[in-house]
């Protein structure tokens, strides 16, 4: 039992009970009702210790056709904190207990209503604040990740059965399993698993809000650019180099995706303590960023990385090089962005030139997560398990190539199956389960 609506006062509050005893417990609060009709909203008066407490609407979901798979009852009562507390009290006295966070969803998982990846999607769906994040959670809830993993699993099972066949007959010294068939299966596995593992970088960013760090030397117009992108005078702009000391973060939704733009202190050699601390934060902002906008304002060094950003820091990030203040360039001079694909985008943050192109460049890599029929990983736990699966695939390949005994190769296949099973919840230990569901809100 738990209140499923947010804590506090509201027009109505929903109290949810799950378990075989739930329908009878709630009947006890009515004067004289003896049953509920499944899936029918029923207007009732609820009594607490003989006194009328509230008018409410009760909906009964009979097992197994409920969220948890057990008998469920939802009470929609008035959203007063007193009514909520009193209902919890009388139901507790009648034998109900408060649910743990995520316990309803955990019951649904344990009753086989959802696999673990779908159950986790429920929490993501509730947390989603943008269309993009909602879309990914919604697809995962409908089984996109589960479906892709089932395809993977099927191939591993086939691989295992071929190898085990070989194992059964090993005394006869015959190599049964056709090596090319094994290779073919491993190829298929990698073709399925690699894009899925790669999708995590973009999927995770979309789920959490895509972090975009704006970096460059002092005075190139980083704060002006932040203000232009968020459409607000958020950061102080001045002709004095070293204006921005701290990082400044602001969220904007572009094409349904949530972006967290971070303006940073300009990077240069300095002996000022505060400025140095600011630059340290700039570097951290780059480290945490999914996309980095590297801004410069001089056309002679387009695309140059400003001092103190090591190239390896940018290795697994989307990087967009910008040449700002093009409004100051002589009209006849061709813009440096003409030509090579890695050439910087010419913009004027102050005059609003080139900002649409910039927005398009920022959004582009993440938009592919939104295409219909793509399966995208968003969950760190899933990503780790999939990387472990791919590691096992490499072991299997090496084992086959170097003639490792079949029983050892089979161990690696079992290992891979274990990791896939850990994503869907086919194999889990209860500690992991509790850790996953503890992050849920109460009442879900
Ligand atoms: N002409 C022109 N001036 C610009 C443009 N963008 C910024 N500026 C000017 O450049 C100066 C520095 O701008 P800021 O946005 O404060 O630069 P910054 O990179 O944040 O500087 P720091 O915080 O000191 O690192 C200001 O006087 C801005 O008005 C532009 O596109 N064109
Ligand atoms: Mg600034």
Description:
This protein is of the alpha/beta class. It has helices at residues 22-27, 81-93, 103-110, 116-127, 131-141, 144-168, 179-208, 222-230, 273-288, 355-367, 380-401, 406-424, 430-438; strands spanning 2-3, 10-18, 41-48, 51-61, 72-79, 210-216, 248-254, 257-263, 291-296, 318-323, 345-346. It has 3 domains: 2-99, Probable tRNA modification gtpase trme, domain 1 (Gyrase A, domain 2); 123-205 and 379-438, Four Helix Bundle (Hemerythrin (Met), subunit A) (Up-down Bundle), CATH 1.20.120; 209-370, Rossmann fold. 43% of the residues lie in helices and 16% in strands. The strands form 2 sheets. The protein has a 6-stranded mixed sheet, with helices on both faces. Strands 1-2-5-4-3 form a 5-stranded antiparallel sheet. A hairpin with a 6-residue loop joins β1 and β2 (10-18). α11 runs antiparallel to α12. The longest helix is centred in the middle third of the chain and has 30 residues, at 179-208. Bound molecules: guanosine-5'-triphosphate and magnesium ion. Magnesium ion binds at residues 222-223, 235, 243-244, 263.
């Amino acid at each position: 039992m738990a209140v499923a609506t947010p804590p506090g006062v509201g027009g109505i509050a929903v109290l949810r009970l799950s378990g075989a005893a739930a329908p009878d417990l709630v009947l006890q609060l009515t004067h004289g009702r003896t049953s509920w009709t499944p899936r029918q909203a029923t207007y009732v008066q609820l009594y607490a210790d003989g006194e009328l407490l509230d008018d409410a609407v009760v909906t009964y979901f009979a097992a197994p056709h409920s969220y948890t798979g057990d008998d469920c009852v939802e009470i929609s009562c008035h959203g007063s904190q007193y009514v909520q507390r009193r209902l919890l009290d009388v139901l507790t006295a009648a034998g109900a207990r408060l649910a743990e966070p995520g316990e309803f969803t955990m019951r649904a998982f344990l009753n086989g209503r959802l696999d673990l990846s779908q159950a986790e999607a429920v929490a993501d769906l509730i947390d989603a604040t943008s269309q993009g994040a909602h879309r990914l959670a919604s697809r995962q809830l409908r089984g996109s990740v589960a479906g892709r993993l089932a395809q993977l699993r099927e191939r591993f099972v086939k691989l295992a059965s071929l190898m085990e066949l070989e194992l059964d007959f090993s005394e006869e010294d015959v190599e049964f399993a056709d090596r090319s068939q094994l290779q073919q299966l491993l190829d298929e596995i990698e073709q399925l698993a690699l894009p899925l593992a790669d999708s995590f970088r973009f999927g995770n960013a979309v789920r959490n809000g895509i972090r975009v760090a704006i970096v460059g030397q002092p005075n190139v117009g980083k704060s002006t650019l932040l203000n232009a992108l968020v459409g607000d005078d958020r950061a102080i702009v001045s002709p004095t180099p070293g204006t921005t000391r701290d990082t400044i973060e602001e969220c904007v939704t572009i094409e349904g995706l949530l972006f967290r733009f971070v303006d940073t202190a300009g990077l240069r050699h300095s002996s000022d303590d505060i400025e140095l601390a600011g630059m340290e934060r700039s570097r951290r902002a780059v480290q945490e960023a999914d996309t980095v906008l590297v801004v410069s304002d001089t056309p002679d060094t387009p695309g140059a990385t400003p001092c103190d950003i090591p190239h390896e820091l940018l290795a697994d990030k989307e990087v967009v090089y910008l040449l700002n203040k093009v409004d100051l360039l002589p009209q006849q001079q061709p813009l440096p962005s003409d030509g090579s694909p890695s050439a910087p985008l010419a913009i004027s943050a102050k005059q609003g030139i080139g900002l649409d192109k910039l927005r398009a460049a920022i959004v582009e890599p993440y938009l592919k997560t939104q295409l219909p029929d793509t399966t995208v990983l968003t969950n760190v736990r899933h990503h780790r398990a999939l990387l472990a699966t791919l590691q096992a695939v490499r072991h299997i390949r090496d084992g086959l190539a170097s003639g490792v005994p079949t029983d050892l190769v089979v161990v690696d296949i079992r290992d891979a199956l274990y990791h896939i099973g850990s994503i869907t919840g086919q194999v889990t230990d209860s500690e992991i389960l509790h850790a996953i569901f503890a992050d849920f809100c109460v009442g879900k």
